[in-house]
Amino acid sequence: MSSSDPKPGPKPGPWPPTPESAAMPPSSWAKKTGFRPKFSGETTATDSSSGQLSLPVRAKQQETQPDLEAGQTRLRPPPPVSAAVTNGETDKDKKEKPPPPPPGSVAVPVKDQPVKRRRDSDGVVGRSNGPDGANGSGDPVRRPGRIEETVEVLPQSMDDDLVARNLHMKYGLRDTPGLVPIGFYGLQHYLSMLGSLILVPLVIVPAMGGSHEEVANVVSTVLFVSGITTLLHTSFGSRLPLIQGPSFVFLAPALAIINSPEFQGLNGNNNFKHIMRELQGAIIIGSAFQAVLGYSGLMSLILRLVNPVVVAPTVAAVGLSFYSYGFPLVGKCLEIGVVQILLVIIFALYLRKISVLSHRIFLIYAVPLSLAITWAAAFLLTETGAYTYKGCDPNVPVSNVVSTHCRKYMTRMKYCRVDTSHALSSAPWFRFPYPLQWGVPLFNWKMAFVMCVVSVIASVDSVGSYHASSLLVASRPPTRGVVSRAIGLEGFTSVLAGLWGTGTGSTTLTENVHTIAVTKMGSRRVVELGACVLVIFSLVGKVGGFLASIPQVMVASLLCFMWAMFTALGLSNLRYSEAGSSRNIIIVGLSLFFSLSVPAYFQQYGISPNSNLSVPSYYQPYIVSSHGPFKSQYKGVRYALRSLSFSQDLQFSYLLVYLQMNYVMNTLLSMSMVIAFIMAVILDNTVPGSKQERGVYVWSDSETATREPALAKDYELPFRVGRFFRWVKWVGI
């Protein structure tokens, strides 16, 4: 051995070497953690020019960011950072980084641990980067008192070959469980959405003056149409497990049409059938417009304007707009209505974590359980004579009651007793709902124009439901073509609802997202079997009669909860955007405030404090067409038409159109959802903001569908129908 050869050194120790004990720790908590204060008041600062996030850097634990594009159910890898921050290390960390290993030593690479997610009972997702859920220091990350499930993160890169569904779901979109599980989960799915299916006809039919028998017939028709349209949607629409039914979006325009001035002189059965035929005509034209919007591909262009900041206030305004109907009707019988509200709150919130055979029965069945208990209590009170007054008959109309004593208790007997409805006894055992059962639809262009605008709002609501539900059950969000196809089919199914006479259109129910998240059931087969059962039940007339006999106070109590849920589900869309951004806060706040304030101006215009209106107080917001601020006179327009040398018939036509614009403007601008949509669309698409700050919906593209077979299998049409429409690129994968 020559003298120039290096002498053998000591055996290399562990790598990386431990820092010297003489090194002084940082002098403050800020230096120790690398904390960078933010003074903007926003939760996440965004550099719009580079698209990168300015994140607080921690020395030992890397902060994760929620994937705003994929939603709450996915987490994205740490975003690329600037030169100042690389792989979670600051410049100071690089300076203090130990030197490379000496020659002759072997550096063993650390195998990347699979990133895991944990989902607790409320749907909150946690993330840990260490083995077995450790937080980097080896300590498990746990929250006491939570039900935890470890879920693997879906691949975020388009180059990944592995694209799997979320493992927290019991069954995925294309899973086919056995017949028993399908039947059980299908019944569970529809029972949890019972309120959304039956409450709308229980509101509009009495408002039209319909009898108890007609209420039962409309309820049966709604069940029949809901089953048929759900089967069509899961097969030829978005193919997501979404129940179709009478959405609350159509309730406000339906009540506005019902309370139009031209219908005030009608009464009895003639009133119900005439108004229903007018509603049918308006729904058919508005739904045909929605079908054209979808199948023509125009919806793909509108999707560029529709983002979470638009969907959130628009959907929330639908629920908030019915505040005048909810508790004022509950107050007709407080001891029944308040108990109903308290029970549904207790079941849905305080008892939501109680499981029986791994099923959270109180959370899933909050509405039917609370309804059954309250109904039974009201029945006992009625049978024991709590609402029986000597010499008073609850079946006698109030106008025919002469006794002052009976007049005092008529309202209490009408709303508190459970035997005032004869829907169950008068309903037949078998009844087949058929098209045009109320007569030939009547077409009025002013009401049809209102429904066309409402169909756009319903499409916006459905877009939010498609995106949120796809993140729960599918491999990836649908393509823009699939969304257009689904909106077009919703328009077609709403035409069917108009022909059958349900009183509203048939669209995707917003409550689907909550039901899927709670039941963890994402199989479309479950929804399809439930739809078949729904069709069978609709043929049994006694089922519709039983549902139609629900007391009106209980209906109002359940609606208070359902509209609150609808509002919360709308606002939950903000989780895809930066909810703490001052831009988004101001846009949502302005949209919600003016969605209540502007309609209040229209509803109160021209009404004196001492005016005696012919409709109940909870219907007054929907009679604005008779007294709104748009009251254009025809004299000036008629003079202008004469000066243009138009014929008498043409002058009359133009005058009729001009005068009916008063009805359209007064009605549309008195609806909260229309004002919220206009405000949100204009502000969100004109106020500068990055895509991540706005939470722009990220839809899949055709290249991804070609590269990933799982995406094509999720959304392709069955029975090879799609191959006949491959040339229609704007409504396919």
UniProtKB/TrEMBL annotation:
GO terms for molecular function: transmembrane transporter activity. Its main location: membrane. The keyword Protein biosynthesis does not apply. It is a multi-pass membrane protein. Residues 7-19 have a biased composition (Pro residues). Residues 41-53 have a biased composition (Polar residues). InterPro entries: NCS2. Residues 89-98, 113-122 have a biased composition (Basic and acidic residues). Residues 1-145 are annotated as: Disordered. It comes from the Eukaryota. It is found in: Membrane. The chain crosses the membrane at residues 190-209, 215-233, 240-259, 279-298, 305-323, 329-350, 362-381, 526-547, 553-572, 584-602, 663-683. Keywords: Membrane, Transmembrane, Transmembrane helix. One of its GO terms (cellular component) is membrane. The keyword Disulfide bond does not apply. Belongs to the nucleobase:cation symporter-2 (NCS2) (TC 2.A.40) family. PANTHER family: XANTHINE-URACIL / VITAMIN C PERMEASE FAMILY MEMBER. This is Nucleobase-ascorbate transporter 12. The gene is NAT12.
